[in-house]
Design a protein that fits this description.
The chain has helices at 14-48, 55-82, 94-102, 105-125, 138-162, 179-213, 220-248, 266-274, 279-294, 302-305, 314-343, 442-462, 478-482, 486-493, 497-517, 527-546, 564-582, 594-608, and strands spanning 253-254, 257-258, 378-379, 400-401. By secondary structure, it is an all-alpha fold. GO terms for molecular function: spindle pole body-nuclear membrane anchor activity.
Length: 609
Amino acid sequence: MLDVPVPFSSRYSYHTIFSDVCKTRFNHLATRLSLTLTFFQALIIALLCRGYGSHLEWALMFPLRFMLMYLSSLLIVITRKNYLHVEFKGYSNLIRLILGQLFSLSTLVYQLIYTICCLFLSLAVSDSLGLGSMSSSHAVTQCYRLYIWILIPTVYTLQHSLFDLDRLSFNFETHFQPPQQYIASSVRRVFVKIMILTVSLAFISPPTLALSTSHWSIGFSNHVKLIVLSFWIFANLEFVNVAFNAHMSIGCLHKGKPISSLSSTPMETLVTGLSSKRLFTKLTAFQELSYRATSSDLSLRLPLYHKRYKNSHIWPVILRESLLVIQETNDAVTKYLNTLENTMSSRNGLKYKFHHSYGSENENLFGNQATVTATGSSFDMYNFPGSAPKDSSGSVSHRIILKDDNVLLPKNPRQQGRPTFTGDVLGVSHSYNEPIITHETTFLMIVDRLLRKVKATLNSFFFPSTVSSQDQAPQLSIIEVWSISKRRQAEKLAPLPVCHAECIISLMGLLINAIDEDPKGGVVSSVGEVLKTLERSVGALGRFADWNPDPNKKLNAEKDTPDCISILYDLSISAFLEIVLKYNVLLNDVYLDDDVVKLSKWVLDMCSK
């Protein structure tokens, strides 16, 4: 077992430095953006309220409004910081999602926080909307309180919890995203979401008002005022959440440089991040590794090739941590498919037979002149491990596109899309905690354990497959079989798919660049081990990508939104292709497993056609 290299000082560990960077980003959010926007918003509200009192009252109310709005923003930011996570919560179907989120301590906390924020915001803006005169009627007063204390915070809390908006999502093609760019790209989506929430509330409020006060209506003008108030409150709550996401998902660069460069021993520091148990730190470290591996700047990779500070364990540890992440997903997918096959033994959808001939064993497999077809051409995936069978029309449901030499590099760094892995389990402890994340009190920890006990009891009753048994093979319950969702199951099996993707990109980028930059180094000699792991990913992830839980629905990879495991499968194929093509001549002198040889031969045959 290799020893993980340790920096000269513990204060230069990746988590410590990343914590300081996150604190800086948090301070920019809390002191610059929030204070500035709150000030201008309070000023506008104060100008709209000039006709409702004297100049002295106006001057005294301005700082009060400012403090109320700023406190509401600060409460949301602190709560988001406490429940921040980057992994999917792992609910395999809608039933488990609802049960898991309803019996959640975070939902109760958010309900309380959003209720307090709604109260603060309503006090700050009530006069500017003419809501101060609504207390003339008892029904109107009750409706106003119903909006502020129950309807607005409940609606926003439900959508926040059910869609797991605490999770930070990342794009494996983006290593740095300025907050301004993130917020600007979210304006349209935020506006549409606020409108949907406001309209939904407008339909919910009349029957709720009738049940609570026996009045169906409080007058058209009063309803309009409450709708405007709810729109303004939703806008404030949503903007704070979007601004928090923008500042916490900036990426692995700080002032244009990798985070590990803030240490006196960058590579040793980076390795501590790759092996970190905190998922946010681990993900950011692999983002940086991917950035170094695919950068056009050779100086970012030279420390990986050349052993500095007499430390020879840098590359072996990087390789080990990367392969562990990939293999963890492979094992989880294989275990689930075996469980599914045991439960649904009458189905043959998961059983594949390969009869394709890969050529004679004595034939030279490598060293031939492979010609790559034009970018965008696709290969027929017949008889390929993990590929889907052809349908009656002869078309293939899962196709692989061979790209050019820069297959996994962003074509235009300025045109970055939204995160690839979208969708929406916190463990016993937070995935990313001290010193950034605040601590929970003893009371909250007790409540959290009670809620987890209730969820565990319900899961063991409705979903027996979650309880391991040594006497028999794992089985799925009828509810689980009936409510299977391929996308949610993929998120459960690969809770952090971006980290897996960054591992693949890092290994591919380093191997391809090292053959020219350090041809006699340890990176090049690891090509066999990397190809072996990628071949196993192709087999394991490919089976899941071809699995169709709904037999009445034909697989159509071009039209349907792919799940995260299918994306990882395509990424594994692309990386395998690029490495084999780059190492075509050298592979004759490398020991490879039989499966890797067969897959490599198939790749070269496809490229030469």
